[in-house]
Design goal:
By secondary structure, the protein is mainly beta. It is about 10% helix and about 30% strand. It has a single domain, classed as Immunoglobulin-like. The structure holds copper (II) ion.
């Protein structure tokens, strides 16, 4: 019987910095259209390291009176929350795009501005501000490290170029983390290639590995950046990339719908509740 072996796209071992016949990483592909030279400059204007992981709750910490914390029960029975840069995203009560002036600044935080006394399950509307037209580099680092689980990160609003994908070249490192990724970066050991890096808007971060992405922040707004597994979205594996300022956005049209506009009239229950 004859059969063919085709190269695999996105091999699980994430060995992307060598030429191989059995697999192709997204970072080995070439963009069919030209890439803005400013994307390929050696130093980006903004560099953001984003480790992501799960927090494992002890049921006694999760199920407390008068609290209703979101969580996910993993296949093994663990109660987990997602953290990106040690923050679990919670959605704001109204859309920032049209009602930002009504939202308390206290709702928002990020790795550099964490709320005081934020606990191990730190929750806020995770938002990172970047200047309009800046060149942004994002390094996602998988600290989840569940075997065979690669989180697909999706950015709204603008595609990014995939500069590199990989795992630690240091064989003594069994688990990558932020500190080690920063170390690799300092030593120039994060895999980066600048020859027509492909455009993508979703990319799987290899298990126990990292990805290096670049984008030109030329589309102002509040853009969600999140793992695309729905059950990870609902436990906070998201953040807002805020490009530009309110002044870079067109004005909100008169009579634009507002959050809460379509609430039905609340009437007493039709049936008595016992
Ligand atoms: Cu995920």
């Amino acid at each position: 019987m004859a059969y063919f072996i085709f190269p695999i796209l996105n091999p699980l071992d994430a060995i992307c910095n060598v030429k191989r016949n059995d697999a192709i990483c997204v970072s080995n592909l070439k963009s069919a259209r030209p890439v803005d030279k400013s994307i390929l400059q050696e130093r980006p204007d903004v560099k953001i390291f984003l480790p992501f992981r799960f927090h494992f709750y002890k049921p006694k910490d999760l199920f407390q009176e008068n609290t209703y914390k979101n969580y996910l029960v993993a296949p093994g029975g663990d109660h987990v929350l997602s953290l990106v840069d040690e923050i679990s995203y919670s959605a704001p009560p109204a859309p920032p795009l049209s009602q930002m002036h009504e939202l308390s600044p206290d709702l928002f935080c990020n790795g550099d501005n964490r709320p005081a006394n934020c606990a191990v399950d730190c929750r806020c509307t995770h938002m990172i501000d970047v200047p309009l037209n800046s060149i942004v580099e994002i390094v996602l680092v998988d600290e989840v490290q569940s075997p065979n689980l690669s989180h697909p990160f999706h950015l709204h609003g603008t595609p990014y170029n995939v500069i590199g994908i990989g795992r630690s070249p240091d064989k003594n490192i069994k688990k990558i983390n932020l500190k080690h990724a920063l170390d690799l970066d300092r030593k120039g050991l994060l895999h980066r290639q600048y020859n027509l890096p492909p455009f993508k808007d979703t990319l799987a971060v290899p298990n126990n590995g990292y990805v290096v992405l670049r984008l030109k922040a030329d589309n102002p707004g509040y853009w969600l950046f999140h793992c695309h597994f729905i059950y990870h979205i609902v436990i906070g594996m998201n953040l807002i990339l805020h490009i530009g300022t309110q002044g870079d956005l067109p004005p909100v049209p008169p009579n634009f719908p507002r959050c809460g506009d379509h609430l039905p009239t609340i009437t007493p229950p039709f049936f008595p509740i016992h």
